[in-house]
Structures are given as C-alpha cells and as structure tokens.
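Handout, tutorial session.
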Amino acid sequence: MTGLAATINTHKKAYYDELHRASTSNYIESWMAWFASIVLEAQSRTIATISFVVEKARFLDGLKGQLNPRQEKVVLRMLAEGIDGFQGGLSAQNYRVITGATSATATRDLAELVALGAFSRAGQNRYARYSLNLKRRSGSD
C-alpha cells in the first residue's frame, strides 16, 4: 500500500465523511484542504519510513555477528513491526513465546541485548519491558 493510500486508510471514516460532504454541494474547498493535509501527513510518514529503514540497516549492521539465533529472531520480529514498533514493549514472556527459550535463557539473552545497547529496558522484574534502541551506533560511526 502506498504512503497516501495507507494514510487515507487510517482516516477512512473522515475520508468518506469529507467526500460525502463535498459531493452534496459545489463547495469543494473544504475537501481540498482536508485532502492536502492528508497528502502532507502521507509525505511525513513516508519520510519517517525511509528514516526507519536506514536506522534499521545501521542497527543490524552494528549487531552483525553478536547475536545468537534466538536474539536475532526476536530482534527481526520486533523490527518487522515497523515504525510503530512492538506495542507495549517486549516482555520476558513474549521472548520465551517467540523463541521457545527457558526463563533463565530468556533473562540471560535479554540482559545481553541490553548490554549490547540493542534494547532499552523499562521497569523491573516481571514488569520489565524491552524496546529496540535504534539510535544505537556501532563503533564505526
């Protein structure tokens, strides 16, 4: 789906409301203003997507050869969520479900990901949540 189509899709109800309003009168200035704002929003989202792809590539390049297969699987799964990310963060339980790891292995893997700077951690114990640290830079930057 293109950036414009995706943006319109997120505002589907407003799109149809504005389209209906414009089609029942000859007054289209409101429709044109609304549509222009959607085009600008789509442009901003496209720029953000491009930035995300660049950050993602840098992030993965900086971690090359440092992750075990479980960690790599989880990192790739989180990156697959795109710009909006893994909603609510990753819990140790999520990690175990995705990888099939034991609790001890999940705890160790997550601690390593934090130590590498790949993940940021918020909260403690069972309330800990992990998020990607895309602003992480490799030593070559």
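The second record follows below. Compare its token runs with those of the first.
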Amino acid sequence: MVWDALRQRFVPDRGASGPAMTGAYPVILLSGSAVQCAPAFQLLVDLCRPYRPERASEITGVPASIIRDLGREFASRKPASIRIGFGVDRWYYSDYTARAVANLVIATGNIGVPGGGISIHDGTYPVPLNQRVFRSPDGREAATLDVISLMSAVEYGKPYPVRALWLSASNMFNQTSANRKRVIRSVVPRLELIAVTDHFMTDTAEVADMVLPACTIFERADLVPGMFLQLQQKAVEPEGESKSDFDIFAGLARQMGLGAYFSRSAEDYLKEMLATDHPLLEGITLERLQREHVVFLNRPREPYVSFRDLKFQTPSGRIEIYKEELLRYGAELPGHREPIEASPQSSLYDRFPLVLLFSHSKYRIHSTFANMPMIKKREPEPVVEIHPLDAGRRSLAPGRFARVYNDRGSVTLRCRFNPDLRPGVVVISEGSWVKHFPGGDPYSLTHELISSTSENYAFCDTLVEIEHVRRDE
C-alpha cells in the first residue's frame, strides 16, 4: 500500500496517482486503533540520519570532508553511475552494502538514464551463444550447485547427496572453498570418487583418485566470448595422451552407453552454439571466425539503458528499497552492520587485531599457471604485505619470514612492507598453490559463515595476527 498524496488516503501500490515519498500518516486498522506509517523512502531517510559524515568517517577512516564533498558532487552531476566491482562480495554483509550503494543511485535519479545506474559489469556483453541444445538434449536442465551448496551436499546431503566429483578447469581445493584445512579433513573424505582433468598436478589434483591429462588451449578449438568473439584455433596436436575435455567426456559417454549425446565433432557443436538469431551474433559464423579469427559483436547503435521504461520486476512494479520478505532477518532496509568477524567489535579482535584481505596477482589469473617458471621469475614466492607501523609493533623485518595465524589455521611466508596499506590490514595475493607456501596455507584462515540473506564466502571478513618466525621453526 502507498499513501496517495492527491487523494489523502491509502491505496494499493499500483493504483496511486501521486504516491507520497516522505512523511508519516495514521492508518486506522480493522480493530479501530490507529498506527503511524511512513513511506519506504522516509524510512530510508530516518535510517541514514544518524550517519552524518563525521560518524561515517569514524567507521570508514575516510575524512568527513571527503565524504561530504563526494556526496555533493555525486548528487549534483548528471548522469552518474557506480561500479562496485566484485570485492564487495567478499564480506558477510555484502548484500547490505550493495543495496546501500544502489540507493545512492536511486535517490539521485540515476536509474533508467543513459550513463546512470549501478553495476559490477565492465561494459562487455554476455555473448548469447546457443548452448541449450547441447546442455539439454532431452529438454531437461541438469541440476547445478554453487561451491557453497556443493560443500553442504557432500558433507550433509543437502539439498541432495553428492558422492563423487569430476573437476575440469578447476583448482577447487586450492583457494575456492573457505576454511580449506577443515574441508580437506572433513569434507573431501566423504567423497567416494574424485576425478580431475588438468595440465598440472595442482593441489586439487593431488587429492584426486584419478587424474586425466587435459590438453592445453593451444591444442584444441574453442570459442572465447567477450566484447569480441574469438575463435581459439588449434595450433599444435595434443601432447602425449592428453585430450580436450570434450574428447574425454565423449569417450566416457561412449563407455557409459551415452555416446549419442556426443556423436558429432567439436566443430559441429561450435557451429550449433553460433546458430542463433540474436542480433549480437547476426552474421557471425564459424566460417567467418576461421577467416577473421576475432569478430567484434554487433553492438547496437544506441547504448543499452537498463530500466529506461522505469518498469521493474517487483511485486509493486516500482523500485523497492524496502524488502518485506527480508523483514524476518532485520534486512528490510540496508542498514549498517559491522563485519561478522573483521571488526574491532568482534570478540576475536583482542587476539587477532588484523584484517586479512586477498588481492589479485598482476601476473596470473587466480591459480592458473602459478607454477610456471616464467611466472615464478616475476613472482618468486607468495608474500604477506603489512603496513610498517603494524610491522614495527611486532618486530617484523622486510624479507623475513612471519607466521599469519588465527584459530582456524596458519601460514608462513615472507613479509613485504607497504605504506600504502591502511594500518590494521594485511594482504596476501590469492591463487598461489598451497605447496608453494613454506608452511600452512592462507586459505585455511577464512571462515565458512554464510549470511542468511545472501550466499557468498566472506573471504575478506577475516581476522588474523602475525608474528616473526625463524624459517626452521
């Protein structure tokens, strides 16, 4: 229901000609008693009121003057947009943060306008390849699980039991799942079979029952989607007995009596994926890609603008900053919440006063090729970065070994001083293989606490302490 300011009464949300945004209004209940109600935007204003720039500065460490100037500039410049990136996802209350940021864009009128909006996207288009025929040959979609649900399915049989894993293009038991030591000790042994296809003996391959050699990207054909669509062409024949993942699965399917689903060549399936009437792929065929190698997608002349018609897939058809279905979690509005662990208010903070963040290496993508000699020349070993003030309090020296630890695990690695870090924070690049750390691993420091309103591992919502160690300790 909304308060119709023109008719001065409550009406259904889709029947209001002049819905009020602010104020408080008495509602007479069937019992005859009255209750004060306020529009959702008014509730948001009330929620924000205690967080003046000075208060926000205490929480964030950003000077109040910068917060105030940025707020005024963002509100006054048109159009304006915010790209939040994936880092927000690494915190327990990530959905609160994302919704709060979205409210800045909403409140300043930057929804449905060119150049406005909020996104994590980088401006590319998801290529609309026709994969449904191959993935659902009988018209049925296979059940899929994200990593969090997969761990639950293996350990607890929910939402359904998983007894075996076949892992391709994945180093899952390196840094993908949280609290790695517990996963290796308690979850992996519950699996009756683990099969891995890979180029290298990764940390995941080492826990497998069966490892099959996959050929590299230079030894097989494939499509590489993005703003450009690239044909990855075979440069050389596969080395030794290695095969593409497609050929491995096709061979397995034949042995299981399911060969009919892999009866055509990989090239035929690539043609099928391109056989779509979507305008982004109009005129793009496998033959054209074989000639031109890379093709720019058919981007529309007019840039796409989300919600230009201001119609939304919500029960009311409007932007809903107040979510009734989240009321039972206290998340109907995205109020400020301290991190679940990485906060001075945490009961763990006295013993573990440093926040552990995981950065990306500039020399590789996650754990891919982390073992290659060429990469090792540029990044010889994993390190922990720490602010010199924090290092001084702990008698740490640059280039010397230190142990980063909490109640879940520990890792030994060299220190690197970084004055650009915020004091109270240490950083380790994710993706290094466990076997490359002198002792322990950083992936066992993270916890598995999952928010009730979003599903994500809070990799950065982690507290640790760090101490000097001799290498032989």
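Points raised in discussion: The domain at 132-296 is CATH 3.40.50.740 (Rossmann fold).
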